[in-house]
Design a protein that fits this description.
Layout lengths: L9 H22 L6 H72 L2 H36 L2 H11 L5 H12 L4 H10 L5 H5 L2 H13 L13
Helix pairs in contact: 1-2, 1-3, 2-3, 2-4, 5-8
Length: about 230
């Protein structure tokens, strides 16, 4: 690796905590929908679609950008790590596809039996995700810090949000920053398009996420990662 500034992976840890929180709370949200309450089922289905989309872009960026860099620079050990991460992505993709297929019907009917099956699938997904995130933090992030430059890492992050709408950027930033450290918050703001940086710094992202949480979780302050792991 060159003498360029190494990647700062604090943003990945922060995104991981967001995934842990939202996907850990998802089974309970599904179970909480009353039989026949299609309006509430639609809210939860839309929430799943949002966090699924963020997870997809995160994993797609790793599969197409990060793992190839590690394979090229860190030798056989990196290849073994990348293959393990890709295999775990595929396991989660299978369950995500299962949930997505069932949601198309459940969001229209809120059928209680379908809801039970969906919640069980969401619980399986939660388990796979928790295992995967821990493995990535233990095995892959140290390699990223050694073999990927800050410029390369930041480019990958910026590409992940390139096609996200302005409203979604504000909401998703609030979602990711909900449990973030001040250092990580500054890093996220620095990676956003310049026109969004003052908006996020002024607290509008936190406000947008609080309003969203009122609708989805029934509170502006859902349980943090320490209580849902």
């Amino acid at each position: 690796m060159s003498t360029e500034q190494p990647a700062d992976t604090s943003e990945i840890y922060m995104a991981h905590d967001m995934f842990r929180r939202e996907f850990s709370l998802l089974p309970g949200l599904i179970r909480g929908v009353k039989d026949g309450d299609a309006e509430r089922a639609g809210v939860i289905a839309d929430h799943f679609a949002l966090i699924h989309s963020v997870l997809y872009h995160h994993h797609h960026g790793e599969d197409t950008h990060t793992w190839p860099l590690l394979r090229a620079r860190a030798g056989a050990g990196a290849d073994a790590v990348a293959r393990a991460m890709e295999s775990q992505h595929e396991e989660m993709d299978a369950v995500l596809a299962e949930i997505t297929a069932w949601l198309a019907s459940w969001r229209e009917t809120a059928d209680v039996e379908q809801g039970i099956a969906l919640a069980d699938a969401a619980e399986r997904l939660r388990h796979l995700l928790i295992v995967h995130l821990a493995a990535e933090e233990e095995r892959a992030l140290p390699l990223i810090e050694l073999h990927v430059t800050a410029a390369e890492f930041d480019q990958g992050v910026q590409e992940e949000v390139a096609d996200v709408s302005p409203d979604q950027i504000i909401l998703l930033t609030g979602m990711v920053l909900y449990e973030a450290s001040p250092h990580a918050t500054r890093k996220v703001i620095g990676n956003l398009p310049p026109e969004f940086r003052p908006v996020i710094a002024d607290g509008l992202a936190a406000e947008a996420f609080a309003r969203y949480c009122e609708r989805v979780h029934g509170t502006p302050a859902p349980a943090k990662i320490g209580s849902v792991r």
